[in-house]
Structures are given as structure tokens and as C-alpha cells.
């Protein structure tokens, strides 16, 4: 083995060890990484394919400007002529329109079956009865209010004429001079007014209608002739006493959702406020439920202008007389060149799909952290000297590097194949956004990992978050963003959930890239962040603040709840108040608590306790472990009493000694080891390892110990050599010393030859894993080693080889070994302690224990069952105190006190018996260690059953303490 290096490994040495291990682990999972990174690549290619299919469809004649073959000069030869007059609604958007048509301004009039009527929830008597819906005669209601009712009524009277006629010579001008409206939906473009290209009639609004319900007129627009039905709609202006009454009626008559299901629609509402002859002040309500696919309301504003004109025109007529008119002649679209349909599916679907792409990193990081927790690998690393600082630094940087590479490949690939979502938006904004979010996502993974200990559960929860966030973002959050009536403050509250922050940022990128592609402009630039409708600035601020807060909370919870040493919740405050020394110094050893001395029946245990007291008063450097009245009590649950796992254990262990702990299952051996390695805290008492207190200096103790746990804690994808290299670096081994130590360790446990050292640990047999765990515990020459049943699962040859390793290793270190093998205990242990019911029952070397508890021989004889009584009489003559301890089918075992019998007498008695009957087999044996173990264990259990109290030195408790009810 390599000579030990002085001092524990430095911060950067530990960080280097963990980084090398992580990179090796990553190399082993190359195919998993390929599958992970292929998901965004496949998705981008799918979007590209979908975009190509859509482009092919949009390039067909169905979506190109309409054309016809027309004989333009009468020579019988037709020429292809294209334009808006030959186009359908789907084709108009691509046509060149140098002189857009003029359309009369219209009101948005409810269809007859949806016009306002009197109902149970709107009981105004001036509304018509609902029976008018059956005849289609319901009026179109206009609500108005203000500070002056008579003034308001006069204005409304001027807004809606009593009667109007249409001039057939110039129908469009005539329509503009009257009050017209339509129930058809407005569209994105007003190049072709839907009111004149649908089966819905155009309504002429007037105070009363004649018997003629409708007329058909021919409308000439450019080269188009449109036959249109014009119906009369009776306008009914109704006064309300306040704006709140108008608002209440509009609200109650509105069926949220599909506009076609609105049950009590109002044409418009006016609040004239303080309008008088010197001041014109009006607020107008209009129907904003007609929106395009993106949720924008500006389409319905095309028909708001007419409502404003009616109010303005009525006020002018009030001031200047009825002859004065401010005509609103037409609504006209802006001229446009010939264009092509541009639908970028990466922008349309990007917010949803790319949310899934980015957030799928969360379950990857999350499950990796939970895997280390479930397999207790984090604990194993910490017990071999890895500090919290290097662990957090390297783990965070490792996941950040992987996430950054993933996102970089994603953006580069999307840009290379030409997705506008990436190419049109400023790359620096994308870099800042993705960088901040992946930091927040990694911090969240660390925080969530503190609350999970099962990988399968963590994986399910992680992927529920992935798909749930995308679906909630696409089908809930997006609609709330686009709904201008939804409070912006609640949007910010929802964005506190990191998944919605991610979705909002991707949504902003998609909107800017879609608009920029369609309009031929650029995508999102830094200057756009100042736009009030752009939410990117607010989510960047939210994510930065959350990143720092979540990272701090995750670190705090890890130190308090998930830490192996279990720090106090006030550890940050305590660290601030008192600086820890830069290096661990041997503290003064003091006995914890008081004690009550009682007459003891176990002088060896009492002697050990006295030795501990002496060492606490006069410390010695040659004693590596001193346990001072160590106790562990588990609180009662579900009505069960407290469980005393360890009852005041005192033990002193010098260097160069292997101490074996024997005991039945549940005796408290594992609880003792757990306290010594920092997995649990002692209830009372303490222990010192190399002079360091296990309650306060576990971080220092971890650099001095090695642990072979009861269950193998190994990375399935790392080889045996890589395990030892990692743990050797944690023990401050470097260069050739590290290589030599690793090779010697592998050879010592028979894992060096035949390529076994470079095979992944997941492919090892149980025995090979056990040998590797022993090698890990001894690498780096720790002065204290804990081995919990190290030879479990080994074949005889491997077990003997392992025993030789432990024999060699114990020369310059203290070893505590638990085992159920009496043979192993005799071979390896210098001293043994039999641990029953939470306390030591005896301490000594194997020979002393056999001499102390083995004052008898075991005599075994097999005869015919007819001679059993004669055999029993023979044994009684040999030893009056003999006891039969076994009897079945002629085979009997007797325990003969050594002071009552001589071996020669036994031989002579058997020879004499052979003359009288047939002796099939016989034997005489001394007491074995197994006999001692069984005798001590059964004796303690018998005492407990009879309620006999054993004597023990208790720490800090009086005779009324609950523990005194239990025997020892």
C-alpha cells in the first residue's frame, strides 16, 4: 500500500476527484445522451417537414391570387387577368391591391335571435318580451347614460333616424349616409368586407321599420357586382341610470365563450358623462369578443369607428342644426403589393413544443440527484472525505455544462435548418434567456431532490412536470396572456412558476418571429424589451431572483434535512457568529452528562468503562476510538414505546486492533455503526475518532476513516479501478502513489487479473462487489475503518483471501468489524464484544471468552433408542451435574461441567458401554465461540423475560428514567 499523505485532501483536490468521476460516468452513458439530444433534433426536423408540406399547400392555386382568362380587346383571344375581383376570401390576402375597395362603415349588429330581451336576470321593463325571437322582430338595443338624461336622449335621437331610404343609383354612398350594420364576423383584412360576401343580411338601423322586411340591391365595387339583401333592424335606445347599470346589463347578457352563444347582445353602449353644450365627453362600450386566431381584438375595431361617428355626428347636429352632417363615407384598407402566404409552424407551435424540449432536462438532473440519494452514493462519498463545498460546486457546474451543451446544440441545429424561431430573434437575447432558465432549472432539481428518495417516483413526477407544464402553458396560460381583460398582476403571479416563465419567454420569441416573418421585418431585439406588451423583461427579472432564492433554499435544506451529519437549522447564524478553526485540533475530551454507579455483574464491561474514563481525563494518541456512554433511543410511533437501540456503550479501541462486534439481529450493532459514521446522531453521550467529536466534527472525521457498509454502495457503470481512483483522490493520493495504491488494492482483493478491474461494477457478482467495497474502505490508508459484515456472500477461498487483507490492514489502524461468522471473528478480531439488547454483555479476546463462558464439555453419543436410558445413567455416574441439551432418535448431547469430570474417565466409560450395547458414534468437544455467543444471548433474553434488571452505568439518568424498566 502507498504511504499515507499528511492531511486531508484540499477543496480543489476533492473537486478534481468528483469532476473526473462525473466525466467518466458521463462517458459510460453516451448512448443515453445521444437519445436525449436526438429528441429536439427530431422535433425540429418534424417541424421543418411540416413547414414544407404547408408551403406546398399554400403554393397551390387555392391560396394564390385569383385569375381568369378574359377577352380584353374583343379579338377572341383571352388573356390571363388576376386581381381581387377574381379572388375568393382565401386568395385576397396574396393579391396586389393598389387601390383597395371602399366599404361602407358598419356597426356590429347582433343576429335577431341573440338581441337583448327581458329575462329573469335582466328584468328591465323597457326590453321586449322574448317572444320576438320567434318572429325575428327583436330590436337592436342601444344603451346610454350620463349626468343629464334629457341631454343624452336628445343626442341618441339624432343618432338613429326614424326612417331612411336607399338611392339605387349610388348604393354604397347611400349606405354610408345611413346607419348600417351586420351580424357577420369581421376578418383580419377588410379588402373584402364579409358583410357583403356572406349569407348574412346588411341591416339598416332606424327607429321604426315599414312592412317591407328586406330589399335586394346590386352593389357595384370596381369591376365587381354584388347582390346584397338589406333588412331593416329597429334601433331601440334605452336609458339607464348609471354606467354601473349599463355594465351590469352587458355582463349579465354576455355568455362567455363562443360568441354565437351570447344570449342578450347589445349593439353598443354610451356614457355621455358630463357632456353639455360646452364640452363633449363620451365613453363607448363595444363588443370585443370577435377576435382572430391569435386573440387580438383590433379586428373588431373596424366596426367601432361607426359607433364613434354616430355620437360625434349627433353632437355636431345638436350644436349646428340637423343640416350639418359629418359623414363617415367609407372604410378602406391600405394598398398592398402581391404577397405570399407565410406560415412559420416553428413559431406557431414553438412555445408548446420547445417548452417540452427545454424542460425535459429537469427530470434528467432531478433523477440523477435522487439516484445518488437512493443508492446512498452521496453518503458514501461524504464518508470518504468529500466535502459539501466541492460536491455542490462540481455537481452544479457539471449539470450546467451538460445543459448548456444541450441548449447550444438545440439552437444551432434549429438555426442551421432555417427555423425562423431561432434565426429571426436576436441570438444574444436567446442566450441570456436560456442561460438564466437552465440555472433556475438546475436549482429547482437540487431543491426537489431533497424531498424524494426513490428514482422511479422522481422520474414519474419529473415527466408529469414536463408534459403538464407544456399543456397548461399552451391551453391555459397562453389564453390568459392574450386576454387583455385578465389582470397583468395575476400573469406575473403565474410566472412565478418557472415552467410558465419558460413558456412566456418562448411565446414572446414565437410571436416576434411569426410577425417578423409575415411582415418581412425582424424578430425580437433588445430594444423590444421596453415594449409594454413584451413580457421578456419581467420574466428575466423573475427568473434571476428565483434562481438565487431557490439555490440558497436548496443548499440550506440539503445541509439541515439531507445532510449526513445533520446540521442545526441555525448553522448559518452560528457560522457567522463563530469562525471555525482552519484545521481540526484535538479537543479536550470531557465526559458527557452525569452517571449513576451501580454494582455490575460484568467486570469486563465495567473495566472497559473505567478505561474510557481514564482516557477522557488523560488523552492518549494511540487510541483511535473512544466511545463515551453512547446511547441511541428511537421515539415511539403508532402507540409503540421508545426503542432503545444502544444503551450507554463505552469502548476504547487502540490503533492496531480489530474489534469484533457479535450479536443477534436487532441487537443495535448497525445503530452503533450509523452513529460512528454520522448517519444518525446519538441521543446522549458521544464518541471521539482520532480526537474529534462525532457530534461536532464529522467533516474532519470523514477524512480519517474508511467504511465498508453492510450493502454495497457502488456506481453500476463505473469499473472497479475507477471506483478506487475516485476514492483514492478523495484521500489525497496523487500521481504514481495513487496508481500504485489502486493496483495493490485490486491485487489484494483478487480483482486485478483477468480484466476484472476494468469491468463495470454492475456486471460484478455479489462477492466481487463485496471485495471491491472492502478495497474502497482501505484505500488511502485511513486510520479508522468500519466494516459491516465484510465477508457476506463470499466463497471460502475469497473469504480466506479477504481475511488476509484485513489481517494485514489492521497493523497500523483501528478496525471495528461486525459479523455473524464466529470463525471470522476468531481469525480476525483481537477483541470481541457480544452485543445484545443494545448493550455490551462481555468484552475480551476469543480465548478469554471461551474460558469464561465455556466451563463445560459437550458429550455426544448415538445408540439404539432402546439404550437411551442406560446412556443417561452412565452420564449421570460420570458427572452428577450433567445436563442433557439435545435428544432425538437415539442421539443425545450432554453438557458436562469441567470440574466434575476427567477426559480419561469419559473414554473409559464409553469403552465399558461398548461391551454392553452398540455405540454407533460418540464425541467429546470443548466450548466453541458459537456456544459462548448462544449462551450469552439466551441468558440476556431469559433475564428480560423474567424482568430481571441488569446492572449498568447510566449516563445522565436517574432511577426513574424509562430505560431502567429494561433489563440489560
From TrEMBL:
GO CC terms of this entry: membrane
Annotated CDD domains: ABC_subfamily_A
InterPro entries attached to this UniProt entry: AAA+_ATPase, ABC2_TM, ABC_transporter-like_ATP-bd, ABC_transporter-like_CS, ABCA, P-loop_NTPase
Record Pfam families: ABC2_membrane_3, ABC_tran, ABCA12_C
Subcellular location: Membrane
Signal peptide: none
Keywords: ATP-binding, Membrane, Nucleotide-binding, Transmembrane, Transmembrane helix
GO MF annotations in UniProt: ATP binding
Record's bilayer topology term: Multi-pass membrane protein
Record carries keyword Nucleotide-binding: yes
Transmembrane segments: 30-50, 310-328, 348-371, 391-419, 431-453, 460-481, 539-557
Domain ABC transporter, residue spans: 625-862
Family note: Belongs to the ABC transporter superfamily. ABCA family. CPR flippase (TC 3.A.1.211) subfamily.
Name assigned to this protein: ABC transporter domain-containing protein
Organism encoding this protein: Eucalyptus globulus (Tasmanian blue gum)
